[in-house]
Specification:
2 copies of one chain form a homodimer.
Chain A (H helix, E strand, L loop, with lengths): L13 H22 L8 H12 L5 H12 L4 H26 L3 E2 L2 E2 L1 H5 L1 H14 L1 H11 L1 H31 L6 H27 L4 H28 L11 H5 L4 H9 L2 H12 L5 H18 L5 H15 L6 H14 L1 H24 L6 H15 L3
Antiparallel strand pairs in A: 1-2
């Protein structure tokens, strides 16, 4: 596995890695509280909701990457803290809107925001967080000077646009069933929907704020892309294999949503044509929603009442037709998902994905080695090395 | 009515007003196409969706206000065009997300984006539009210089935050049923959810780009707030009284959604306590969604089948209980809405709202008169006068 290529002396111990994350996370949350203006009476309830996702248990990897890069390159904590907090705010806004888009039930061990407060509130809270992210980036002009502030604004603008493009591509492929199946197509998707906002923007914004050279920023962009792809592949793998075979709440959520993953792409391109057609048919089906689950209970009720003779045979048919109309079509079933899981296992697609993640992490390590040359040893640089390990070794 | 207070010589004829709007709208759409990058293969389908709402029939009032203010104050068309296009993009992003939040079926005579392409796509397209709005504002540095560019960015950041706060307040009040009923509470809501993004930001951004003084910007802010409140009250009135008594698609949408309007506030504070309680109970009920309408059809079917003896009495009760569970509670009925309409008519609340709109438009005219002093006569200034008339005289 990959860890052998990063010298052990470069990485932090698990304890020190966790301590680094905890320390930066506390600083970042204080910063978010500061510019989320929770004392404004007009917006009091809005800002409680803005703080909801950021305060749930999480690593805070993105702001930590921004701060570590700035400090590893000789910049100060103070110079990067507002920008790090803005990136965490963006991440949480994307999570809220993603949860709406994917119809997800749980996030960080609790009900999703739209499940707890309705879709209307969730969409608006995400918008509020995107709006709140602008002002600290403008205040950067006073904090770090005009040139750096404008370059960070440009980096964030590019990140926001690229992420929306990636998300659009994912939604399109999920609805189509049929999608391009080469590794390069998947990598393009992972780079745009994940790598830019989770890695490229934190690393390059941190570097800009430290006054890095164009060369350094180019190498950090490359590091961010490789790390982001390794991270996303591992995310896909954990979604299928993370829960040790027990059906959990979110386990196989990607399959229910029909998301394009490297695992799925590998399976689809290696199965026989007739299996492929069947699998594509399953992927095109809707994910059953909460209403759909309640309607399943009603269908079972009609069945039972007909069995007891309380509903006539023709009434049963009429009611079932009516229920299908409310359903709005055919939704995926657990049996469908099991077919996908069997084909994935038969094709060795998870193992294939793990190998590709390791290869991207290997490239990331090579990027970081070039970046490290000439930089003084520091806990911040060690933290960056640890993240390269984490990208493929993590289990959560 | 108000029109008498604005001298006729100041306003444009209807024909010239429409021509001014058409001309600026064409320029703005070209500008949006330019920075929406519709030739990017990765985002091709995303950008078709980004252009969907902007290309539907609309006045384009916000960008026209921005361009007219800049030019009336001696600035150039070129200086304000990208910013005007950004404001139109924001407006359309807000409309897409508002339609999701309100569960609206139609926008500008066509199905809403979420109805045509699903909620997931609609949320993401709105996010993409907000992301696309940042880069042209950064390009303003080259176009108009650093100082103006930063002030416009600040104005847009404030506008985005204020709008999200106003939207949050509206959603909270709509869900509560009980809400504060003074005119001042309504005015605060209308200023934050509507006036800032529709009037204050276009007017002040245009002024900043023309190099206006702090005094001028303060007066334009006041003009924008008064115009925005007049505009929003008229919007509320048209929602109830615009369609000459014929039940249209969107007619009374505000009542179905339980939205706080001046009309509703006046009715609630003038009815006897027992009526008020009944009305608040109606407002708290959910709006029936598309699934809910399909379930109503199922309930009718169960009824009919029971009448024919094909479903037993106990089976009917069991099925009705099951349907109520899927419904997820009690939704508003047409009879509920008719009760609200009757009370509004009995209290003269629409007439009251019209008077308050006229009073805000009167204040807006006073603001514009002060702004006009010392400015050369121009078609752009005449356009601003026409908008003051339009705010209370419009019927669409």
């Amino acid at each position: 596995m990959y860890a052998a290529t990063a010298s052990a002396t470069h990485s932090l111990s698990q304890v020190d890695f966790d301590a680094y994350l905890t320390e930066t996370r506390d600083l970042v949350l204080d910063e978010i509280r500061r510019f989320a203006r929770i004392d404004d009476p007009l917006g009091a309830s809005l800002y409680d909701l803005v703080m909801d996702y950021p305060l749930r248990p999480a690593k805070g990897l993105r702001p930590a990457l921004c701060l570590a890069t700035c400090r590893a390159l000789g910049g100060s904590l103070a110079a990067a803290l507002p920008t790090a907090a803005v990136l965490e705010l963006y991440h949480n806004a994307f999570l809220i809107h993603d949860d709406v888009e994917d119809g997800s039930d749980r996030r960080r061990g609790e009900p999703t925001l739209h499940l707890a407060h309705g879709t209307a509130v969730a969409v608006n809270v995400g918008d509020a967080m995107l709006a709140l992210a602008m002002e600290p980036l403008l205040d950067n002009v006073r904090l770090v000077g005009l040139g750096k502030a404008l370059r960070v604004l440009q980096a964030v603008a590019t990140m926001a646009r690229t992420t929306a493009e990636g998300q659009a591509l994912e939604l399109r492929w999920a609805r189509q069933g049929v999608r391009p199946l080469e590794d390069a197509d998947y990598v393009r998707l992972a780079e745009s929907k994940t790598a830019h906002y989770s890695f490229v923007a934190p690393l390059t914004a941190g570097a800009i704020l430290a006054g890095a050279t164009g060369d350094q920023i180019e190498r950090l962009t490359d590091l961010g892309l490789r790390l982001g792809v390794a991270f996303q592949i591992q995310d896909d793998v954990l979604n299928l294999a993370g829960d040790e075979g027990v059906y959990g709440k979110e386990w196989c959520g990607d399959l229910w949503e029909g998301k394009h993953t490297l695992v799925l792409a590998h399976m689809l391109r290696t199965v026989p044509p007739e299996t492929r057609q069947r699998v594509e048919g399953i992927l095109r089906k809707e994910r059953p929603g909460p209403a759909s689950r309640a309607l399943d209970a009603l269908t079972a009720l009609v069945d039972r009442l007909a069995g007891e003779g309380a509903v006539s045979a023709s009434a049963k048919r009429a009611l079932e037709e009516g229920l299908v109309q409310v359903h709005g079509g055919d939704a995926k079933t657990r049996a469908d998902i099991e077919i996908l899981i069997e084909e994935i296992a038969a094709r060795g697609s998870i193992e294939y994905a793990r190998r590709l993640a390791a290869s991207h992490a290997h490239d990331a390590a090579a990027s970081l080695r070039r970046i490290s040359e000439g930089l003084p040893a520091s806990i911040h640089l060690q933290f960056l090395w640890s993240v390269v390990d984490f990208a493929v070794q993590r289990d959560s």
